[in-house]
Design goal:
The complex is a heterodimer of chains A (482) and B (255). With 482 residues, chain A is an alpha/beta fold. Chain A is built from 12 helices and 24 strands. The N and C termini of chain A lie close together (12 Å). Chain B has 10 helices and 12 strands. The two termini of chain B are 28 Å apart. A 6-stranded mixed β-sheet of chain B has the order 6-9-10-3-11-12, sandwiched between helices. Chain B has a 4-stranded antiparallel β-sheet with strand order 2-1-4-5. Chain B has a two-stranded antiparallel ribbon with strand order 7-8. In chain B, helix 6 packs parallel to helix 7. Chain B is globular and about 55 Å long. Classes of the chains: A alpha/beta (482), B alpha/beta (255). At the A-B interface, helix 1, helix 10 and helix 11 of A face helix 2, strand 7, helix 3 and strand 8 of B. Bound molecules: adenosine-5'-triphosphate (ATP) and magnesium ion. Adenosine-5'-triphosphate (ATP) binds next to strand 2 and helix 1 of chain B. Magnesium ion binds next to helix 1 of chain B.
């Protein structure tokens, strides 16, 4: 009916909700990458000599590496010399000491995003380390965390205050030369988050970082390092939204998690970077290396991610299960719409005895989007009685999108059990009509169907994140069926 | 309450309804019978506002308003309910959850207070008894892996909960076993009242033994070619459609 298709059009054309650019003068280095650029970044950040050396070594390795190619991603050539590798918001002195000192424009941006820092401080009891461009500009709740002995600060600060910890663990999970993007990140990373939970401590609150990419044409290279010492526990939330823009922006983060004996890290992500417009113009390139190392016995790591943004996503949060009885989990919802592409999945490397891993991956593709699940389950000789369960479900909206599943299994120990299940289904016009006939609006119906599909993953997210994720999915997929 | 005049409908290039007239007053039950492919489900879908059905001529007035102007969900809010010939499966979406969303969407759009979980449960408890709905069907995904009969029963259960003003039951009887047919029919009968009108699409007299219609219509070739009382259904049971269809061709020529 004609009235319907008009509504549909409106929904489809609805602009990216978080599309706005904050005008903060950036202190940006000229585009280009060479040893001088790296020295500039390191100097700008007042880094110790060892770190500069570490960066330069990574850079030299990177020079020898090839741009990766992928079977199911269509990526325009990236000119690494056209990217500016450093940008910091200008602030009066060294950085704000409290919220009052934070650039009001920035605070306004957070308001628009619905992340009022103040409110979060009081209501949610969540400490926020906000990464804006490349420098952390606001950190709250330090006091309470300090009482518990928890360190939660920007990476730069950690380099200054806790050099021994950084030196000990940096690159120990993701070596600089692990892959093309980790090498690039290691050479030019600007900032990120650092967390250390001491022995026996249960972090008294969920730690949360909101990322935004802002200055035009600036690659973002975050570095996150989280260490859970023996018998400690932490839940870490990473969430992000980004402003509207035309140029492709490269984002190549590295996240390293170290989990010692009896410790547990729960790492949750809601990723909503600008995906490009409905014609596939613009959008963020998101090439992330995330890896957790379960070093101690009985350690546990759980990755939960909801990926709705970015033009191109390349991401495989992985678990190395070294300790006996260690547990790795991966719960993922990835949504691709319009011309978005995603190649994501996980790697579970079983080394210790009785190690267990669970993979639940839900992929949703709409319009012209392409999505690939790529997973590796590797059972080493030593991993007696290792167990893995993998479930990969794809949901298609429309008939021009695609879903591909590549589960790789390498089992070298015959006592291991590896199970894999996969399904592909479609949101049909008939399902939507059924809901509408019952009085439910199309966008609510889509929401309901999609959330039903993602249920098993959402239940792993912390409460407030789950609510946000459900909303995000609704916004992302509005009008996608028609 | 429903006034269909000279309704012509195309699906793609194919004309399915070719000048259908039907008038239904509040509280009446109309049975629509007719050969396979004659356009019964098409009519049901057009009334419910399904995409892909183009109305090329004619009008449908519902409670004095132009029904064709309304989006499907707006029709639901206005009290139109379609029990599907082929109820749709929605994996992962809880049956009760969908129903609660439906109840509250309708209430909200009528400016009524939405029901909370407790009120809603109280509401459905009664209705479950009405159609002897099994508990476990409620907690399962909408229609997923339901048997054919369970799906049909679920449709009538939804109808009972949503309390529509105009219910269109598209072959709700097919797929029901003898006992289920009786239970579902009793459920429908108990929902009959002076305000609620029902369109019963069926192939079988059997259903009409339980739910006694006020009128019976024969739909063939996209038109209603014969209307009568309950006795017409009996006649059809006995003689099939051939005699009227042939008859109609003659009349057509004459008109
Ligand atoms: N989407 C479609 N595309 C093309 N033709 C269609 C479509 N839907 C229905 N038709 C045709 O329209 C005609 C009427 O179909 P409809 O489903 O209304 O029949 P019906 O009277 O309900 O039949 P039955 O008793 O078998 O349920 C049939 O010839 C059918 O093939
Ligand atoms: Mg039919």
């Amino acid at each position: 009916m004609s009235t319907n298709s008009e509504n549909m059009e409106d929904l489809v054309n609805k602009d990216y909700e978080h599309g706005f650019v904050t005008d903060i003068e950036s202190d940006t280095v000229a585009p280009g990458l060479n040893e001088d650029t790296i020295a500039f970044i390191s100097k700008k950040k007042d880094e110790p000599e060892w770190l500069l050396e570490w960066r330069l070594k990574a850079y030299r390795q990177w020079l020898k590496m090839e741009d990766p190619t992928w079977a199911h991603l269509d990526i325009e050539h990236i000119d690494y010399q056209a990217i500016s590798y450093y940008s910091a918001p200008k602030s009066k002195d060294d950085g704000p000491k409290s919220l009052d000192e934070v650039d009001p424009k920035l605070l306004e941006t957070y308001e628009k995003l619905g992340i009022p820092l103040q409110e979060q401080k009081f209501l949610a009891g969540v400490a926020v380390d906000a990464v804006f461009d490349s420098v952390s500009v606001a950190t709250t709740f330090k006091g309470k965390l300090a009482d518990a002995g928890v360190i939660f600060c920007s990476f730069s600060e950690a380099v200054k205050e806790y050099p021994e910890l950084v030196k000990k663990y940096l690159g120990s999970v993701v070596p600089a030369a692990d892959n093309f993007f980790s090498a690039l990140n290691s050479a030019v990373f600007t900032d990120g988050s650092f967390v250390y939970i001491p022995k026996g401590v249960r972090c008294p609150m969920e730690l949360s970082t909101y990322f935004r990419i802002n200055a035009s044409n600036t690659g973002q290279f975050e570095r996150t390092l989280i260490i859970a010492d023996e018998d400690s526990h932490v839940s870490y939330l990473e969430g992000c939204t980004a402003p509207m823009r035309d140029e492709n922006q490269l984002h190549a983060a590295v996240v390293e998690l170290i989990v010692l004996k009896d410790a547990e890290i729960k790492y949750s992500t809601v990723q909503n970077w600008y995906p490009g417009d409905e014609n596939g113009v613009g959008g963020i390139y998101n090439f992330v290396t995330k890896r957790a190392d379960c070093r101690g016995d009985n350690s546990k790591v759980s990755w939960t991610q909801v990926e709705t943004g970015s033009a191109i996503t390349w991401k495989y949060p992985s678990c190395i299960l070294k300790g006996d009885n260690s547990v790795g989990e991966f719960y993922s919802v990835a949504v691709t719409n319009n011309y978005q592409q995603a190649d994501t999945g996980t790697k579970m490397i079983h080394i210790g005895k009785n190690t267990r891993s669970t993979i639940i991956s839900k992929g949703i593709s709409a319009r012209h989007a392409q999505q690939t699940y790529r997973g590796l389950v590797k059972i080493s000789k030593s991993a007696d009685n290792a167990r893995n369960y993998t479930q990969c479900d794809s949901l298609l909206m429309g008939d021009q999108c695609g879903a591909h599943t590549f589960p790789y299994i390498e089992a070298k120990n015959s006592t291991a059990t590896v199970e894999h299940e996969a399904t592909t289904s479609k949101i049909g016009e008939d399902q939507l009509f059924y809901c509408k006939q019952r009085g439910i609006k199309e966008e609510d119906a889509v929401n309901m169907i999609v959330n039903g599909f993602c249920k098993e993953v959402f239940k792993e997210l912390p409460m407030e994140f789950a609510v946000e994720a459900q909303k995000l999915l609704g916004i992302t997929l509005e009008g996608a069926v028609g | 309450m429903l006034e269909i005049q000279n309704l012509h409908t195309k699906i793609g290039d194919k004309e399915i309804l070719k000048g259908l007239n039907l008038s239904i007053k509040a509280g009446e039950v109309h049975a629509i019978m007719g050969p396979n492919g004659s356009g019964k489900s098409t009519l049901a879908n057009v009334l419910a506002g399904r995409d892909g059905y183009e109305v090329t001529q004619g009008s449908v007035e519902y409670e004095g308003k132009d029904l064709l102007e309304l989006a499907p969900e707006e029709r639901a809010w206005a009290g139109i309910f379609l029990a599907f010939q082929y109820p749709v499966e929605i994996p992962g979406v809880n049956n009760v959850y969908l129903l609660k969303a439906a109840v509250n969407a309708i209430r909200k759009n009528r400016g009524e207070q939405e029901l909370d979980a407790v009120e809603f449960l109280a509401l459905i408890k009664d209705k479950m008894k009405l159609v002897k709905m099994k508990d476990d069907l409620l907690s399962r995904s909408v229609n997923e892996d339901f048997s054919g009969g369970e799906k049909k029963r679920n449709e009538i259960f939804q109808m009972a909960v949503l309390e529509p003003k105009l219910a269109i039951l598209d072959e709700t009887d097919s797929g029901l076993d003898i006992d289920a047919l009786k239970i579902v029919s009793e459920g429908v009968n108990s929902l009959r009242n002076e305000e609620r009108s029902i369109i019963l699409v069926t192939h079988y007299q059997r259903l009409l033994d339980y739910i006694k219609p006020d009128y019976v219509h024969v739909l063939s070739g996209g038109k209603i070619i014969k209307s009568g009382g309950p006795e017409l259904a009996l006649e059809l049971e006995e003689k099939g459609y051939d005699w009227i269809v042939k008859d109609d061709k003659g009349e057509n020529e004459a008109a």
